[in-house]
Amino acid sequence: MGLSEEERKILIVAELTKAKNFYEQAKKNSNLAIWDVVANRLYYSVFHAVTALFIKDQHKVTTHKGAVLLFGMEYVKTGKFSKEDAKFYAQLQTMREKADYNCMWESSKEDTLPMLKKLEGFLNKVEKYLSI
After folding, report:
1. Cα three-residue angle 131-121-78, rounded to 5 degrees
2. Number of Cβ within a 10 Å radius of residue 25
């Protein structure tokens, strides 16, 4: 049994709220120069924004890598989002994985600040697509 339209709207708003909260956390942690946390929050902001897209369009995905691939197939190849958006999402996933799991790698200001600047625009594109 699928979600009702009202349930879908509630989940979309919840995902976007989480995405915006993680964006704010990324900004605050950048002021503290905690770059690994910034990388993590950036990625999860995009992940939750993309999850809102999937909920709207009734796509199912079970892995983070699957979400990146599905975003490319359903939103980039169809022209709804740009190749640059897909590259941004994939770069954030890689950065987050390195920051979280690779003890020999640390995020830096140079890695994360350009991504932080791009994130607001990405979130705005998602909101426009969702018409919220």
Report:
1. 60
2. 17
pTM of the model: 0.94
Dihedrals φ, ψ of 104, to 5°? -95, 0
Q: How many domains does the chain have?
A: 1
The CATH number that applies at residue 70 is 1.20.120.330
Per-residue pLDDT of the chain (132 residues; tens, 9 = 90+): 588 999 999 999 999 999 999 999 999 999 999 999 999 999 999 999 999 999 999 999 999 999 999 999 999 999 999 999 999 999 999 999 998 898 888 889 999 999 999 999 999 999 999 996
Which domain covers residue 15, as residue numbers? 5-130
